[in-house]
NAD-dependent protein deacylase sirtuin-5, mitochondrial (Gouania willdenowi), 296 residues
Amino acid sequence: MIVPQLTCRALLNVHLRKNMSRPSSDLAAFREIFSKSKSVAVLTGAGVSAESGVPTFRGEGGYWRKWQAQDLATPEAFSRNPSRVWEFYHYRRELMLTKEPNAAHLAIAECEQRLAEQGRSLTVITQNIDELHRRAGSKNLLEIHGSLFKTRCMTCSHEAANYQSPICAALQGKGAPDPDTDEELIPVHHLPRCEQPGCDGLLRPAVVWFGESLNSDVLQEAETVLDKCDLCLVIGTSSVVYPAAMFAPQVAARGVPVAEFNMEDTPATRSFTFHFHGPCGTILPPALSRHLSEPK
C-alpha cells in the first residue's frame, strides 16, 4: 500500500538503514527471476527519455530562458502569467514532436506484448509527460504526472488529448528557449481555449504541477499494480520526487525483488536487489529480451 507523502522520507530512511549492502549486478540472476515473474511493475523517470534527446529541466543547466521548471510549472505561475507558461509548454510540445522512442521504450513495450501472450503482465508507471512510452507501443500505462498532449479547462474541467501543432495560432513560432528572447505577452483570449459547447474557458496543460496532488484514481491504479507485482523495475528515475520515490522501496520492503537501471546510484539504490549501471537504451534491452525458458 502506498503511504501518505508526509511519512515517505522517514520510512525510506529507516528502510535504507536496514539495507546497506551493495545490490547485485548479476544479470543472469536477474534474468532467472524475470523469467518466473507473473506481474512486473516498471517505474520510469526522465532518464529513460534522455537518450531520445528530451531535456529534463531538473538540476544545473535545466533552464528555459531564465527560469527553471519549478518557477513555471505551478498554478501560481499560470495564474500570474498564462502567456509565459503556455510559451514554455508550447516549446516542450513542439520539441517532443521531433523526438522518437529509444531502445529502452521499445524494449519495455515489446516485453509487455510478449508477456501478455504468455498470460503474464507488465505495467508501466511513469513520471514522464512526453508520451514516448505510448508512442513505443506500451498499453498498460499509468502517466502519474499527466501528459504534454492533454489539456484541462480551467472553467469546466474537461480534459482531452490535444496534438494540434501549434496548439493555437497565437503560439505559432513562439517559445524559443534563448534567454534573450522577448516575452510575447499573448492576450489571454488568444491562448488555448476550451471547445466544449458553451464554454470557451482557458485551457491549461493537463500535467501535475508543483504543489498539486497526483490524480487519486491514477494513484489508486498504481497502488494496485505495486501491491500485486512480483518483480519491480526502476528505470531512469532519480528516486527523489515524492510520492513516486517511495513506490519501489515499499515494494522492496515486502520482499519483492527490485532492479534499478540507471546511470548513477540514487538515494534508494541500496534498498534494491539489483542495480545495473549504464544508459537505459543499452542495458535494458538485453535484460528484458526473451528468456530461454519462455515459449517461442
User: Anything to note?
Assistant: The radius of gyration is 20 Å. The chain is about 35% helix and 15% strand. Confidence is low (pLDDT under 50) at residues 3-19.
